[in-house]
Amino acid sequence: MKIKDMIIELMEQKNYKPILREEIAVRLGLKKNDFKDFFNVLEQMEKEGVIFRLNNDKYNLLNSEYMVVGRLEGNERGFGFVISKDRPGEDIFIPADSMLGAMHGDTVIANLISRKSAGKKQEGEIVRILERANETVIGTFEDNGSFGFVVPDNHKIAYDIFVPKAQTMNAKDKQKVVVKIKRWPEFRRNPEGEIVEILGFLSEKGTDILSIIRQFNLPEEFPDEVRAEALNVPGSISSDDISLRLDLRNRTTFTIDGADAKDLDDAVSIEKLQNGNYKLGVHIADVSHYVKAGSPLDKEALNRGNSVYLLDRVIPMLPHELSNGICSLNPNVDRLTMSVIMEINKDGKVVNNEIHESIINSKARLVYDDVSDLLEGTNPESEKKLELVKDDLFLMKDLMSILRKHRDRRGSIDFDFPESYIEVDKKGDPIDVRKTERRIANRLIEEFMLITNETVAERFFWAEVPFLYRIHEEPNPEKVADFIKFIHRFGYSIKGKELHSKDFQLLTEEIKGKKEEPVISTLLLRTMQKAVYSAEAGIHFGLAAQYYSHFTSPIRRYPDLEIHRIIKDHLHGRLTDKKINLLEKILPEIADHTSMTERRAEEAEREVDDLKKAQYMVKHIGDEFDGLVSSVTNFGLFVQLENSIEGLVHFNTMVDDYYYFDEDNYMIVGERTKKMYGLGDEIRIKVIGADVGKKNIDFAIVNEDVDSKS
Fold it and tell me: What is the DSSP letter of 133?
């Protein structure tokens, strides 16, 4: 029996009373030379929230009836919410005077004081801080002569950090800095720290994005040993590399990517068979051939988890020598690949598939816009430019349509959100913000990658080997109930007692083209769970897929790299009992870690976008725009402009009446005039402020009679 199980069994005994860790060790019959490992297990169990250390250092099982372990979501006004993965949708409100010095992101134990009741959230108090999230904080230095303060960039951290004069590194007032916390906050006492890095003034080129990189602890430079290993990777393919591989160099394969892409990790090929079926080849860079498990390159790739794309720069998972070099499927050079070759019938079903270690020679490096111009018939020049692969592209268009219809039939939800494109100049200043549409070439590659990822996941589920899956669980019933209540005011409904993705898909089709589409689609997306990596197979609700994985981007995602190794070991009969046992141990850890790094990357990318949008709107203060009400709150309403920028109209700027939030009907209502503003309403605004530090934009309503309801 494992030590962890022995501890739980001991504490579950009826006559057990809390005792010190040394007493637990004695009760379990452990020898003194086992104490160190035992104490480590005990500490880990405390961090996991399995056991609880009392103030007198005695241990007991955590009582899940009234104690909750979770992550603290802070608020700049001092209060917070504890979010527990064991209680999805049941956030616990923590008043400011019950925070125990905890800061945003900390893992804590909260004691429940009051349960959830009508119109009132459950409330608690923090009784233990298990793990601190903010060893360092990024912010703006404020010089007060004999001492200073750092005002955090992350406004969910409610404390300014006190810095003694001797610990300021001679930072200047208003410079961006990194401060290391030396003393944690206490009741009515700010945290204390020392400045360890000066990033520069916000007006200096690159300081703004560098601050976000530091805020999210994104690793920029590769360690020397990783760089050295990358430099030693051969820049060409040897005859030994080719042996035993499926040679596809004579097949017409090509890549389709954005014009600026440098890490090309997928190529495609197509053929129409005599029986009318399609033979689709998806050829993925064989990164695992160069990045060996346990090597410095591999450890650093796992640590990073994924590449991060921050507008004008990329923080890659792998050094450029690999990501832009030998692993990138550049045209007219031999490249090692993992090929999934699928036979797909006219109904969009994969009737046969093969997976091979292969070698290809891409015949062309195509760009999304050129391919879209050809397939959409919008630019005659594109036909000449793509003459070599024109027939293949039209064949791919037919297959894409078949695959899309197959997904539609089973209920796959398509969130067709236009993305923001932020154009910056050489100094990094934003000069334009506009929407970019998802054109046919983007959708084509998306469909091919989706079917490949599904095919791989299903095949290895039935092979019954340890694997990494991409899962998306069903939405929380409470959130769904709130969503159904919300869409009812627009005249929409979701029928059926059994929740199915098809219900949501039908709704997205029903709202297409309506003025409320962006608002309802956004709220529907927020109703959904987050997709995560898992060592256990599970559904992908959004795609209506029984099995799904990430296989197609090993240059920029670690889970893809890991399952390439598993696939190779399976193909070559190398999955020994020892290797299977190792995989069963490490895959859950890889899944959790890469899910975290993915969330971190998304948050950092969103912060950069919000920052640049605020910088852009500083130049437009006083200008007027048309927009749609995208959200309503108890302090105002948010308006989204045509270019995707969103700003707040605060109640205190709506001076023609006293407005309040009608929560039941999701409306803003004027007390005297009964004027109403609801989601999706068209509205004209003036930009009255843009706070680059807080990444906030403020609007005021220009003509309060425009499309308001009375």
Answer: S
Show Cβ contacts of residue 77 under 8 Å, excluding neighbours closer than 6 positions: 96, 158
Other CB atoms within a 10 A radius of the CB of residue 276 amount to: 8
392 lies in the same domain as 457: yes
Same domain, 433 and 304: yes
DSSP β-bridge partners for residue 117: 120
Which domain range does residue 487 map to? 477-528
pLDDT interval class at 496 (50, 70, 90): low
Please say which residue of 12, 38, 61 terminates a domain. 61
Q: How far is CA 340 from CA 61, 334, 391, 406, in A?
A: 49, 18, 21, 20
Does the residue 215 lie in any domain? no
- Enter the DSSP assignment of 311: T
Residue 278 sits in the same domain as residue 421 = yes
**What is the DSSP track for 569-618?**
HHHTT---HHHHHHHHHHHHHHHHHHHHHHHHHHHHHHHHHHHHHHHHHH
> C-alpha distances in angstroms, 221 versus 172, 227, 521, 552?
26, 9, 39, 26
Instruction: Give the pLDDT confidence of 299-310 residue by residue, as tens digits.
Output: 999 999 999 999
Neighbours of 148 (CB within 10 A): 22
Q: What is the pLDDT of residues 280-296, one digit of tens each?
A: 999 999 999 999 999 99
User: Domain check: are 93 and 146 in the same one?
Assistant: no
Q: Are 577 and 585 in contact (CB under 8 A)?
A: no
Report the DSSP pairing between strands 80-83 and 92-94. antiparallel
Main-chain dihedrals φ then ψ at residue 498, nearest 5 degrees: -85, 125
Q: What share of the chain is helix, strand, coil (3-state, %, to 5)?
A: 35, 30, 40
